[in-house]
Amino acid sequence: MGMSAEEEDSSSPKDEEWPEVEKAEKLARGAALKWASGVFYHPDKLEGLGHYWRRETQRNNSIQSRLKSTVQSYLEGVSAGLEQLCMATDEVQSVCQDLGTVQWNLLGSAECFQNLEQLRAVVTDHVQLGLVVQSLPQLVSVHELLSQTLHLLHDQHLLEAHAGLMVLERLRDNTLSQLHHSDLLNAQDLDIVESYFSGLQKVNEELTRQLWNIIGRSMKLVHEDPALFVSAVRIIEREENIDALFLDTRSHHFLPPGRPKSWRQKFYQVLQETITVAHFQASHADMKGPGMARHLAALQSNILAELCVVKDLMVQCCPVHYNIVNVCTIMYHQGLSSHLQDILSWDLDKQEIFIVLDWVLHVYHSPEMMSHPDLLPEVDVSTLGPLVPPEVVDHMERKYVVKVRGNMTEWMQRTLEVEYKEWFREEEPEMDHQGFFQSALPVIIMQMLNENIRVASLITDSLQQKVYTMAMDELETFLASSSICSLHPNGDLLSEPREIPTSLKAALDRTQKKACQLLLEELLVDLQPLYMQLPSRKWLSGSQLVNSTCEVIDKYVRDFARVRKPIFKLLLSESEHLVMSQYLRALMQKKLVCKSEEERSQFSHRLLQDATQLGDLFHSLGLDKSEQTIEVIVALQELIRLKDPALLSLEVLGFVTKYPDISDEHVSALLDLRGDVSKEVRNMVMEMMAQNPQALPENYQPIFSNILVPGPELPFCLRKGKCA
Questions:
Q1: What share of the chain is helix, strand, coil (3-state, %, to 5)?
Q2: Cα–Cα distance between 511 and 505 in angstroms, integer?
Q3: pTM score
Q4: Where along the chain is composition biased (Basic and acidic residues) (predicted)?
Q5: For 673-691, b where at least 16 C-beta lie within 10 A, e where not — what string?
Q6: How many CA atoms lie within 13 A of 464 on its CB side?
Q7: How far is CA 677 from CA 590, 669, 672, 712, in A?
Q8: Separation between Cα atoms, residue 227 and residue 233, nearest integer Å
């Protein structure tokens, strides 16, 4: 179904004014078409067309009736509204006319209002007089109340005195409040009121003096007169409530003079000052010697006793919100922390440092003090942090180690001086049960160091480690390896044993070698006169020289036997090496050069006999043949005994292979002893050595490295003549 052009034209204005109507109409048409197509899709449905027509006609008639009724009601309301608007317009016009008349009348009466200022002044005076009349009975009694209140204070009737004080303050505050709200308060009136109530200041001062005196004696009063302490606390709480009242209403109320008093805060402050003055004020001079231990013991006893009083008695005298046990615990903890840090800033000796650190780290938290059964569980300092900061503890540990080192160094020096004098007495040194010479010095030093390490372990593991490291350093010049073991921390000190530091091992090795060197120098002094005769014709002819050498060696080694095995073995080995090197050095002086084959045979025979006798001697003294260096003399005699010089190259090669540290100069000096080595043979030997350089084997014991070859003698020349 389409719409005609007239219908489209007629709908355009409506569509522009009511777009919702157009949309609703389209939706309705679409719904109708959908319904019709569904109902009349089959031919047999056309028989019910009349029924559908009648039903839809009735529905449309009903809808139209409701629409007409609604529109009629709407039109009636609009009509009534228009009538009311017309009536309101008339009334507004009437009111405007009346206001104009009033305005005109007021302008004509302006001069009359000026005469009302006098009436306003009278009203003001009336208000002031009314306030005075209302307050007059109380104001007259002010001085009497002040006198009564002071009398009550002198008799220590604190609650009654404070009640009188509150009455006086309330009267003053009400007077000032009334003046404040009436906008009549000025500087002159304020001065008058304050002057009249000036006695309140004296009452306040006297009351606070007594209050803080009571709080300062609280630990004693809760025992002897708890009622007095409770009265002081009640007064403080009264004032706190008054402070809270004025602070809560200060946005629309004035704040009286002296408010807020904050007496509860002052209560805590006085309590803290009392604790500080009673326990935490002392000078270093008062703690010299045993004074430090006495002071800390007094702190331990007094703080424990007072906290027990707080926990058992004071807590019953204070309101719950005071949390007095926790507050006092914090006060003692913080005051003690500050006091101890002041003490640690002094120049303490090692004993004082030890006492303070032990008290801080062990006594304070122990069951003898803050973990005492009488304090638990109410007192708990575990949440308050360390009594002394860790960095301060570490600094004091280092300071303690410095003090211990200084005392130790001084003590060791004096002990060493005494020991040094002891060894020069005309008596043999002490011997142990095995017959070894011994000195009490190492034992004494080890005991002293071990005791210092043990004492340090009583404080902290870190302090023990610091002292242990320091002890290792100090031992570098005093102790032997066998003594170090007693310093190794065992289960009583540290959990794991430790190795001797490499630096200490090196120092101990140097010390041992130095001691051995001093003894060997004495041996060398006695051997030098004998070696001065070597080699010589006399030496070739008999064994007296080596016999004398063996006697000197035997005497010294028997003295060496008085020391323990490790050092004795070292001395024995070094003595054998000294005898060998001095023997070779004497041979290289070239005091004797063989002139014939017979002398070379005699020379080699003497060398072999000397080497055998010396080797047997050292073997009998405890040095195994494999550990001896005397064998080099045996090898040397074979070099001398060789009959054919042409074979020297091979013999020297074998010698150099066995003793690779020998130099060309050594070989040349030894060849000179034969007396039959030509220049060609010598050059051949040197060339052979150059072609066969030798590398030193690992762990090779030097033989020739420490033997200096004497330089060639300079020719003797006369002036203006040829050199001889």
A1: 75, 0, 25
A2: 10
A3: 0.57
A4: 11-23
A5: bbbebeeebbebbbeebee
A6: 19
A7: 14, 11, 7, 17
A8: 10
User: CA-CA distance, 57 to 202, in Å (whole number)?
Assistant: 104
Length of the chain: 724
Give the position of tokens 């064998």. 631
Domain 510-691 in this protein, CATH class: mainly alpha
The answer to whether residues 211 and 235 touch, using CB atoms and an 8 Å cutoff, is yes
pLDDT in tens, 292-315: 899 999 999 999 999 999 999 999
pLDDT classification of 270: cutoffs 50, 70, 90: very high
Q: Which residue intervals of 197-323 are DSSP H helices?
A: 199-216, 218-224, 226-248, 263-279, 291-309, 315-317
What is the C-alpha to C-alpha distance for residues 359 and 123, in angstroms, rounded to an integer?
78
Confidence of residue 229 (pLDDT cuts 50, 70, 90): very high
Residue whose entry in the numeric block shows the structure tokens 């109410």: 378
CA contacts within 13 A on the Cβ side of 338: 12
Structure tokens belonging to residue 14: 């409506």
Q: What is the DSSP letter of 498?
A: -
Structure tokens at 205: 């001062």
**Residues whose CB is less than 8 angstroms from the CB of residue 431 and which lie 6 or more positions away in sequence, other chains included:** 437, 438, 562
In this prediction, residue 10 carries a pLDDT of 43
State how far the Cα of 535 lies from the Cα of 587, in Å rounded to an integer: 6
- Asked if the model's pLDDT at residue 534 lies above 70, the reply is yes
Helix (H, G, I), strand (E, B) or coil at 155: coil
Helix locations, 561-701, DSSP H: 565-587, 597-621, 631-641, 648-658, 664-674, 679-691
Return the closest-CA partner of residue 526 out of 562, 544, 559, 553: 553
Q: What's the DSSP call for residue 255? A: P
Domain boundaries, the chain: 26-109, 130-265, 282-379, 397-483, 510-691
